Each structure stands twice: as structure tokens, then as C-alpha cells.
Amino acid sequence: MKQYLLSIYQPDGDPPPPEFLEPVMRDVEALNQELKAAGAWVFAGGLHPPSTATVVRFRGGDALTTDGPFAEGKEHIGGFCIIKAPDLDAALEWGRKLARATTLPVEVRPFQGEVAE
Amino acid sequence: MTPGAPAPTAAAIERVFREQYGRAVAVLVRIFGDIDVAEEAVQDAFVAAVQRWPSEGLPPSPAGWIITTARNRAIDHLRREASRADRHAQAALLHAQREPAQESAVGDDRLRLIFTCCHPALGAPAQVALTLRLLGGLTTAEIARAFLIPEPTMAQRLVRAKGKIRDAGIPYRVPGAADLPARLRGVLAVVYLIFNEGYSASAGERLIRAELCGEAIRLGRLLAELLPGEEEVLGLLALMLLAEARRPARTTPDGELVRLADQDRSRWDRALIAEGQAIVRECLRRGRPGPYQIQAAIQAVHCDAPAAHATDWRQILLLYDQLLALAPSPVAALNRAVAVAEVEGPAAALALVDALALDGYYLFHAIRADLLRRLGRTAEAGLAYDAAIASAGNAAERAFLRRRRQELGGG
Fold first, then answer.
1. Considering the domain boundaries, does residue A17 fall inside one?
2. Which of residues 1-30 of A touch B (CB under 8 A)?
């Protein structure tokens, strides 16, 4: 089995209104349950907006702490999900379900190495 | 030397390997679960054949010999690597132990490999390159020359694509019934892309481009053999055969384009036309039309006409109507307008063409120019030819358009 990171890309700016978000959250939760029932769920979570991010790095022996996301763009990772799948086709099928539930683009990316069934 | 088995020359050995490459690689990918291992193994078998076949003669089943030799050599090689704690080699060996060694259903193996090469997770250029490399047995240098890009760039494209197949876990499998139609469309698109790349007239590298057409047809035949129940596979094969049949008449000896109407029809390949038309009739009999089948039927009508003026344009127009109903596209609408010009006249066709948003497409301007010329609007026709020349893709097309523009006179 391989593990895949499913990243949900969301546009910068204000979150959508609750009447839009509530059914989305319900669908995502249902998908989480489906993943768990299939034994494919490893981890999932939603993130606070990029304005809450802090970057730390080492420069010349000193730790430097700066405000803000590492990369500025029009989109950011709004949340992610780590799954177990036998191959890319199976992972893409979960990716499609996540994209449908969130209405957002999902990037499917393999982890290095293999995990036990 | 074995009696009855003539000693093959180096060129003959190379040809056998080229012909059997896709077949052997497909079986070995299944056995080892790894494309690089499979390719290296076939290469090793080639070295062995060059050493042994000239003295021992051609084996009774060259494909079987290549596969068995490649498998044995790969296993020896992987055992040495695995004993040095190479986990990659260990995985490939483990994979080999679970898989039957013989090519039980070699067709299935090649079909799997085609679907892997044309997986939608790979970019279109990578799909084309992998298909030509792994199934066609073309060298990286040949593929690079065919697509006019530097060899290191093509080599890197292939390495990255194979890396993605391995690391992302793109499966080596024929898709299930639910996914098959969409995935097959992707495979057919790659084959047609290879064909069109070869067919688009280009002054230089004509040989390698002819080879691309030949390779696309070979893949088309293979798919038709492996998926006999898929009418669109047959449709694409017929479409390619009927286009290929006209290739000898399509350019002048110095590479200039010759319009369908001006082609010397005695130079069309009658055997290819007969084969293509028989497939079109078979598709009609099955009654499950699709875009490739209809395009093939249109080509069949063209090939039926003993002279350009005898073309059954009404039939062609009906087929374009059917094509647009099934798969609407501006390019198909443009081609339909050409048929409208023949049936209803250039004015009706021009109105249709002017409504299309195809400003960047040279044929849009070229067809507009021709319609304006026929309507006696010479000055406008000249401008349209200028636009066509500016957006034409290669020298042969530009030379053709310049000549047409000169023939306008006055402009």
C-alpha cells in the first residue's frame, strides 16, 4: 500500500457564507466516514487561513521567524487528507470524491515509501 | 548452426527486436512491475542475440526467446543487486516470483502497457513519448527528432514520466468497465496525435515523420486486435488508413502541399483504401457511430470519388451534420462549411465560416480566403491569405498559401 496526500486548494479571501459551507462540511464528514469504513483513512484536517501562518528558517546559524505564509499566491491549502491506497487509480477515485464534496481542486501526491496493508 | 535456420544479419536482428520490443517489454513489466528493469532486460537480451543468433541462427520463436532470455538475465542481475540490500531490486524479484513467467496472454500485457503509457495523470507529450518508446520501440533519439526537440530534453521527459509511474503508483492495468470509455478516448487521442504529427507536412525529416504515421497505424491495428468490440478503435484505424492512402499524392517532390482537389488520384494507395473502406462498412453494419467512425466515413466518401468533381458532397455534408451532433467543435464546423460551399455555394459557406471563433487557426483563414476568391472578393481574399500565411505551422503550408495568393492576380 502507498500513502497519498490529498491537498485541497482554496482561493484566497473571505470564506464562503455558512449556507454554502454547511452542506460542504456535511459532505466532507460523510467522506471521512467512508474513508474510515474502507480502511483508507490515515489523517484529515482543515487549516486556519494563511494569515495565521508563521515561517521559521535557519540563516547563518540564527533561527529567523517571520509572519505570513511561505508562498504567496491566489490559492492556498485549505485542508488536507492522508489516505492509504493500493495505486494511483484508487487514490484518484478518493481525490475525485473529495473534490466533489469540497467543490474545490484537489492535488493528489504520493508519499515516499510503502506502508503495511 | 541449426539446419533450416539461416544466420540473421545484424540489421535483421535489430529489426526483430524493434518489432518485438513492445511485446517483450509489456510481458516483462508485468513480471517485474518495473519499466526500467523491463527495458534493461530487453536490451540485455538484444546484446545476447547479437552474440548468438549469427552462429546459432534465428530461434523458432524470436519473441519467446527474447522474453525468456530477458527474464533470466534480469533475475540474475536483480539477485546480485538484492544481495547488496538493494530494496528496489528485492521488490522487483518478489514481484517476479508472484507472476507467471510465460506470455500467457501477451495481448493483455500490451493493452495494460498502453493504458499505463496513456494514463491521464501523465501530460500529453509524456504519453506520446512513452507510447512510442515502450510500445513502438523507437529510440529516444528518434522520438526527439520526430518532435524536433533536443534529445536530452526528450530523455528527461521519459525519465520523469517513468519516475511518476513508479512513485505515484500508476497501475499497470486495463481499466474497469466504468472507466474504460474515458480512458480509451485518451489512448485513441494519443495514437491520433502521433499520426497527425507524422501527417502534418514538413519539408525536413520526412522519413521520420512517415515512420510516425506507420507507428500510429501499427498501434491502431494492435488496439483493433486487442479490443475488437470497440467501434471507435476501428473508426480511428480506418481514418488513419484512408488518410495514409493519399500520402503519396499529398505533396510535390519538393515538399509542397497538394490540395485534395488537385491530387493525382492514381497515386493513392488502393490497398489501404480498400482496407479502410471495408472497416468503415463494418462500422456502419454495427450501427454504433462515434466521432472517429464518422470522420473515417467522410474520408471513405472522398476516396470513392474517381475525380474531385465526382465527390458526393451531399453525403459528406450529411456526415458532418452527424459529426457535429455527436461531437460539436469549431474545427468540425469549419470542415462542414467546406462541404456547404460545394452543395449550396460559397456565399452560404462564408456566412458559416465568419461566425466561427477560429482566428488563430491557419485553415480558418485559408478556407475563408478561398471562399472570398470564389465570390470574386479578391482584395479581401488577399488579406485572408496573408492572415493564413502568418498563422501557418510549417514551410510546406506557407509555400502552398503564397502560391494561392499569387494566383489571385491583382492582389
1. yes
2. 2
ipTM comes to 0.88
User: What's the rounded Cα separation, in Å, for the pair B209 and B189?
Assistant: 18
pTM: 0.87
Structurally, chain A folds into a number of domains equal to: 1
d(CA B242, CA B235): 11
In this complex, is the C-beta atom of B168 within 8 Å of any C-beta atom belonging to chain A?
Answer: yes
Interchain contact B404–A (C-beta under 8 A): no
pLDDT of residue B206: 65
Residue A115 lies in a domain: no
Q: Which chain A residues are within 8 Å of B173, Cβ to Cβ? A: 87, 89
A48 in a structural domain: yes
Domain boundaries of chain B, sorted by first residue? 1-104
CB B51 within 8 A of CB B91: no
Q: Give the CATH number, domain containing residue A57.
A: 3.30.70.1060
E-only strand ranges, B167-280: none
Give the tens place of pLDDT for each residue, B115-139: 999 999 999 999 999 999 999 988 9
Distance CA B23, CA B11 (A): 19
CB B74 within 8 A of CB B40: yes
pLDDT higher than 50, residue B411: no
Three-state SS at B18: helix
Q: So what's the pLDDT on residue B1?
A: 46
Q: Is residue A116 part of a domain?
A: no
Q: Is B169 close to A112, i.e. CB distance below 8 A?
A: no
First to last CA, chain B: 73
Q: Which CATH architecture has domain B1-104?
A: Orthogonal Bundle (1.10)
Residues from chain B contacting residue A86 (CB–CB below 8 Å): 169, 171
